[in-house]
Structure formats: structure tokens, C-alpha cells
Amino acid sequence: MTSDELADFDRKHVWHAFTQMREYEPLLIERAEGCRLFDTDGNRYLDGSASMWCNVHGHRHPRLDAAVAAQLGRVAHTTNLGLSNPTTVLFAERLLEVSPPGLEHVFFTGDGSSAIETALKMAFQFWRQAETPRPERTRFVAIGEAYHGDTLGAIGVGGVDRFTAMFAPLTFEAIRLPSPGGPCPHSGRPAPSLAESLSALDRILAEHRGTVAAIILEPLVQMAAGIYVHPVGFLRGVADLARRHDVLLVLDEVATGFGRTGTMFACEREDVSPDLLCLGKGITAGYLPMAATLATTRLWEAFLGTHAERRTFFHGHTYGGNPLAAAVALASLEVFEEERVLTRLPDKIERLREHCDRLASHPHVGAIRRIGLVAGIDLVADKPSGRPYPWQEQRGMRACLAARKHGAILRPLGDVVVIMPPLSVTLDELDELCLAAESGIDDAT
Ligand SMILES: *Cc1c(COP(=O)(O)O)cnc(C)c1O
User: Fold this and answer.
1) Which residues contact 89 (CB under 8 A, 6 or more apart)?
2) Residue 222 Cα: closest atom of ligand 1
3) Whose CA is nearest to atom 11 of ligand 1?
4) What is the 3-state secondary structure (H, E, C) of 109-152?
5) Could you tell me the distance, in angstroms and rounded to a whole number, from the CA of residue 343 to the centre of ligand 1?
6) Cβ(243)–Cβ(182) under 8 Å?
7) 149 within 8 A of 250, measured Cβ to Cβ
8) Atom of ligand 1 nearest to the CA of 280
9) Is 411 exposed, middle or buried (0-12, 13-18, 19+ CB in 10 A)?
10) Torsion sign across C-alpha atoms 193, 194, 196, 200
11) Which residues line ligand 1 (CB under 6 A)?
12) Band of the pLDDT at 189, cuts 50, 70, 90?
């Protein structure tokens, strides 16, 4: 097929995620190198969304390519239903080594949503089988505007209403704590303060005493909500309340894990170790689908027994623990060390901050929220009042589409333009990316 024929077939037959297919304009990326993407017409772009937030060390990294090739020479896929393979075990060992203390066991799945489903079901089943069983602990507390994936359990604890409100009748309802990470650009209401949030959570846990299984949250920053950065101390406060009320803490680091916020995991920043930790996206450096739910020994032990005792976790995904994915995930952890990826981040984070400071004076830029190597830039119709554009105008999407003409692939969240390159981005590339974003914003506003 010629590139026009490919685009035509794509437009008519390939149903794209989160995409209105009537308005979809195909763009086919044929190859990539480092932070550059090349389309079928030979145009080049900077990968400003890290290929949907998961690329870490750049594309076609020689170490990672070699790891996949080497594993292909052994076996591509087996199964983790009752058997294993050396590469997956080696990766599990390394992963648990770099993970927050207390997490000693790992359940592999294929994508972030299934890591969340796994955690929710584990937390639920845990209370039925705990040393002192508490089967009435069945509910979940989640944060307003949280995003935990698109499967039914994950949208039950999610709160990005523009994605999920329609499906409410199909799912269970979480108890919701308003996000302290706003202000919400859609509602315009101010976010509650740190103290207000934590006392609201304390009240919720007291009010629902004995019926809450777990609190689930994205630590430090709610990405899909619009890069809502929580006040310092919120995560620590939530963890303390979870402990005090004897409720499990589930952290969703699908987006924040693997260096995005400046440390390997976001929860390290507030010295918090959860009972269950969900990982995805960057786990294979953006190469292959894989996700994981890490658990403490307390959780693990509640599931041990003979078959007849029915304590088994009857849950799994066909490609969980896939050896090809494990091979590249293991190599990615080695690259983190060899290339001192985290040590080299502060300069890049600082450069992103400088660009954001400049962008803040743009006449149609409102708030900019930033943490580690990610920034969310609110587009506003009127700067003094912060009045948003009518959502139907899709200014965020228009700015990102316009940025393509200036050499960058970006993906918005509503009217929030997001800058989230691979961690391997160079300072020069970061300059180029931010200038392209700015030009796109100019064009669309
Ligand atoms: C992307 C994401 C998920 C879902 O992961 P998928 O791999 O898309 O299923 C869950 N939680 C967070 C915080 C995410 O960013």
C-alpha cells in the first residue's frame, strides 16, 4: 500500500482509542530514533508525549533493541499461569529491588488498567481472608478526577467524568475525596487545601468505618485529570490516615513510575510505601505492553493455603509476565543505572521550568502545573479572569495539531497542553519541543 492508501484504510477501518473517527486525520509514524518520530511522508517530529507517556530512554535504544532480539532467540511467549521463565524471574528480582521497601511480591499483567483491576480484587479478597477476616470491607475511596484506566473496575474508582460518566450504571461507585490538585479548569472551583483534604478524608474514613477496603490514588500528580499536582504532604497524610484507620493503600504509579517525577517512583518523595503498587507505561521503557501489581508480604500471605481452602487469587491475563516484555524491562532498569538517568534529570527539569516561566506570560495561557519532566499548560480565553474556552472548540487539540507543523507530536488533556518527552530528551530537544508547543498555542489561540 502507498502511504495514502494506508492512511485511507486507517481512517475507515481502524478504530482509534479516544478518537472521534469522523474527525480523525491519519498520521502514520513509520520509524523513530531517540526522541524523533518519522512519518510515512518523511516528516520528522519530536515525541512530546513520550508515545503516550511510556517512552523513557528514547526509541531504538541499542541496549533495549538488543535485549528484545536476544530474548527472541530463546522464546517470545510462554505463560505465567502456573509456570515461569528465567527472564521474567530476573526482572521480578530487579524490580522488587528498586521498588519502595515492603513490596516483596509481583503480579504481572499486560496493561495499566489490568494492574488496577488486579489491585482492587486483591484488596477486596484480602479482607475476606485476612487473619481477622473483615468481609464487610468492600468499598474504595478514590480521589476526584482520578484516572486509573478504562476497564469497568478502573472507571469505578476513576473520576474523569468526561470519559466515564456514561458507564456509571455498569460499575461500582467509589467514595470520592475532592482532589487537592486543581483548580479544576473545567469547573473553575478552587481546590481544597491540604488541611481541608486530609480532614475530609479523616471524616470519610470515620463515617464509613469498617466498610472501606482501600484508598487508591495517583501519588503526587493526577496526570489524566490535567496534570493536577498535589500539595506537598498530601500523600504522606493519606498514608498516615490509611494506617490509622486500618485501610489498605493502593498507589497507581502507572504514569508516575520510572522516573517521570524525578525519582524512580513518586511515592519515594514522601517516604511512603503502599500495600499495593500498580505499575505500567514506562515499565518496559515504552517498548512492549506490560504492567505489574506489587504487594506486601502481609497481602501475599492472606492468599496462601491449600487448593481446597479456596484462598487462591483466581485472576490473570494471558500475556502477564511475557518474556519479551520482561527482557526489555530488565534492560531498561540497567539503562537507568548505566546512563545515570535520574542523576541527569534535574538539568532537564530546570530547563522545562524556564520554558514554562516564559510561556506563563502568553496571553492565552492560564495556570501551568509542573512536576519532574512533565508540564500541563492551561489554555484560557481570557487571562485575567481565567475564563476557559468553550470546550467544543477543542483549543487544546487544535494547539497540539498545529504543533505538528512546527515539528512536535503533543497530546492534550482537554484544553491542557501536555509536555511529557522521554526522559532521554536532550536540552536542545527540550528547547525545540517547547518552542514548537508555543507556536502551536499561538496558532490555536
Ligand atoms: C495510563 C494510566 C492507566 C491505564 O493504563 P493502560 O495501560 O492504558 O490500561 C492507569 N492509571 C494511570 C495513572 C494511567 O496514567
Assistant:
1) none
2) 13
3) 148
4) ECCHHHHHHHHHHHHHHHHHHCCCCCCCCCEEEEECCCCCCCCH
5) 26
6) no
7) no
8) 7
9) middle
10) positive
11) 111-113, 116, 147-149, 218, 223-224, 252, 254-255, 280-281
12) low
Instruction: For 158, list phi and psi in degrees, rounded to 5.
Output: -80, 165
Please provide the DSSP assignment of 25-50 as one string.
Answer: ----EEEEEBTEEEETTS-EEEETTH
pLDDT tens digits for range 375-403: 999 999 999 999 999 999 999 999 999 99
The Å distance, Cα 146 to ligand 1 centre, comes to 11
Q: What is the DSSP string of 158-212?
A: ---HHHHGGGGGGSPPPEEEPPTT---TTT-PPPPPHHHHHHHHHHHHHHTTTTE
pLDDT score at 185: 45
Q: Going by C-beta distance under 8 Å and a sequence separation of 6 or more, which residues neighbour residue 217?
A: 142, 143, 146, 235, 238, 250, 251, 252
Enter the CATH code of domain 66-338.
3.40.640.10
Short-list 143, 308, 117, CA closest to 217: 143
Residue written as grid cell 528484545: 68
Burial label, 38 (beta-carbon count in 10 A; 0-12, 13-18, 19+): middle
Q: Dihedral sign for Cα 437, 418, 229, 180, please.
A: positive
Distance, CA of 423 to CA of 258 (rounded, Å): 9
The span from the CA of 412 to the CA of 395, in Å, is 9
User: 250 pairs with which residues across the strands?
Assistant: 216, 276
Q: How far is it, in rounded angstroms, from Cα 373 to Cα 341?
A: 12
Write the pLDDT tens digit of every residue in 208-229: 999 999 999 999 999 999 999 9
Distance 322 CA to ligand 1 centre (A): 19
Closest to 116 measured CA to CA, from 203, 201, 214: 214
Superfamily of segment(s) 3-56+341-444: Aspartate Aminotransferase, domain 1 (3.90.1150.10)
Q: What residues does 141 pair with on adjacent strands? A: 175, 215
53: left (phi over 0), alpha (psi -120 to 50) or beta: left
Residue 191 confidence class, pLDDT cut points 50, 70, 90: confident
Domain map (residue ranges) of the chain: 3-56+341-444, 66-338
Q: How far is Cα 194 from Cα 206, in angstroms, rounded to an integer?
A: 18
Q: What is the spatial distance between Cα 435 and Cα 445, in angstroms, rounded to a whole number?
A: 15
